[in-house]
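User: Design a sequence. Structure:
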């Protein structure tokens, strides 16, 4: 078999206009948002318009034992959408419809290419809220969010993607189509396959339809900017607010490095004197919001925090735009920006902050600390230059220590970015051999040829037989 024959089969399956093969065009799909990652051009990119066409592509790939890498907007930060040699990239960006917005049952049925922010906006127009809120909400797709189990700014109070997905249509590794769940609030029929596929990073199947539950839009909200002269004090305030039985909708941390870079890029009125800030948003019934605001202010003042309440929606929007734009601002600051994702129990956030400061000093690198501190999900962001080989050695050593520190504090390697290609080597720090073997058994059962997003999340040997690389020789 040859690569040309494989591409001809793809064209026959879904049409010439839906298969991209030009070398310059393919180069655009050789990377995602993962920094300093190797770039490998795929053999082809397919643009299916429906589940049947997704299934057709996967059937061809299965016949050739050819890797398939599903892709949405390519915003993955862990290598989740990176192609491997000989792969066909399955672009789902064109499958972007809201198939149904059922306000009566408070559910929505959407396609995987829909941008998360578009669903949020559509739900708000009928008085509802889709809570998962990644920082890349304006770009990230629903399919990618399901694959990575995205969380985001509202994760503290509302949870993450897995808490809202109640139905899935999935194309399996042989090209067959399976459906799980639906619109019902309760459903315990059979294994919980939805939870299995959510967060599986495209390694077990390709999601082609998603049913999510929505919640009522909160009637009131209040945004508070709290500034601290000491980063560790901000961490203690986070733990104190949670200990005070207050659960904000969001509680975001930015250290001095992040604040200075963001303010120089897009001024939002953040205090340059502060060693750290917290952005806290409370929502719910007005009387509850008022009560919780008092608790938050009291806790923060005990830790030396200066509290400012956003005067109106315009100020609120400026503050949140600064937080959402932080990664972009940091990316402009240095040639290479490595955004990590480590989560610890909320009570250990102060300890993790101290550990990050020590790691940065020990290796002589710059780490901007920010993230969803309220749920323990920190994003230590390393500002570096991948062209500096000596510095990158120190960076890689520091990354290993970041994850070791998180696991030692009872945490996890990833709260929302996934494992992808970048964190596989650390998996044994969090899971014992029996647990890893169980995950490999699931992968082999659902993808016996190992063609779905190979090399991501967990390594499993490909099935015996001709590989995609061999087919081109």
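Assistant: Done.
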């Amino acid at each position: 078999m040859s690569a040309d024959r494989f591409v001809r089969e793809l064209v026959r399956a879904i049409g010439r206009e839906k298969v991209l093969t030009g070398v310059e065009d393919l180069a655009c799909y050789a990377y995602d948002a993962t920094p300093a990652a190797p770039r490998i051009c795929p053999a082809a990119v397919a643009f299916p318009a429906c589940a049947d066409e997704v299934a057709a592509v996967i059937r061809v790939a299965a016949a050739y034992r050819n890797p398939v890498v599903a892709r949405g907007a390519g915003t993955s930060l862990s290598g989740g959408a990176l192609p491997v040699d000989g792969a066909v990239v399955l672009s789902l960006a064109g499958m972007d419809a809201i198939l149904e917005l059922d306000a009566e049952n408070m559910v929505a049925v959407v396609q995987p290419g829909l941008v998360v922010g578009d669903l949020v906006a559509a739900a708000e127009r009928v008085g509802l809220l889709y809570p998962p809120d990644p920082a890349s909400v304006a770009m990230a797709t629903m399919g990618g969010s399901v694959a990575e189990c995205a969380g985001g700014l509202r994760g503290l109070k509302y949870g993450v993607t897995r808490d809202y997905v109640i139905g899935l249509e999935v194309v399996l590794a042989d090209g067959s189509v399976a459906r799980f769940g639906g619109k019902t609030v309760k459903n315990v029929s059979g294994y919980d396959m939805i939870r299995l596929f959510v967060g599986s990073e495209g390694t077990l199947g390709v999601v082609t339809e998603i049913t999510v539950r929505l919640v009522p839009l909160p009637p009131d909200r209040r945004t508070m900017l709290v500034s601290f002269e000491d980063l560790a004090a901000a961490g203690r305030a986070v733990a104190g607010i949670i200990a005070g039985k207050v659960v904000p909708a969001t509680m975001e941390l930015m250290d001095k490095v992040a604040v200075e870079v963001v303010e120089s890029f897009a001024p939002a009125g953040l205090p340059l004197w502060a060693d750290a800030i917290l952005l806290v948003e409370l929502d719910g019934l007005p009387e509850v919001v008022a009560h919780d605001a008092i608790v938050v202010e009291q806790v923060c003042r005990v830790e030396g925090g200066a509290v400012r309440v956003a005067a109106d929606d315009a100020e609120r929007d400026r503050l949140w735009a600064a937080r959402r734009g932080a990664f972009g601002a940091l990316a402009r600051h240095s040639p290479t920006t490595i955004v990590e994702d480590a989560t610890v129990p909320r009570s250990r956030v102060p300890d993790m902050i101290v550990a990050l400061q020590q790691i940065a000093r020990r290796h002589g690198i710059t780490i901007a600390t920010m993230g969803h501190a309220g749920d323990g999900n920190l994003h230590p962001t390393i500002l570096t230059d991948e062209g500096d080989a000596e510095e990158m050695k120190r960076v890689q050593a520091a990354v290993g220590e970041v994850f070791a520190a998180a696991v030692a504090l009872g945490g996890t390697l990833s709260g929302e970015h996934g494992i992808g290609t970048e964190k596989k080597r650390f998996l044994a720090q969090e899971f014992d051999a029996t647990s890893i073997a169980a995950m490999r058994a699931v992968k082999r059962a659902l993808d016996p040829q190992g063609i779905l997003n190979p090399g991501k999340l967990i390594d499993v040997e490909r099935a015996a037989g001709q590989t995609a690389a061999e087919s081109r020789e």
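The chain is about 35% helix and 20% strand. The domain at 219-311 is CATH 3.30.70.3450 (Alpha-Beta Plaits).
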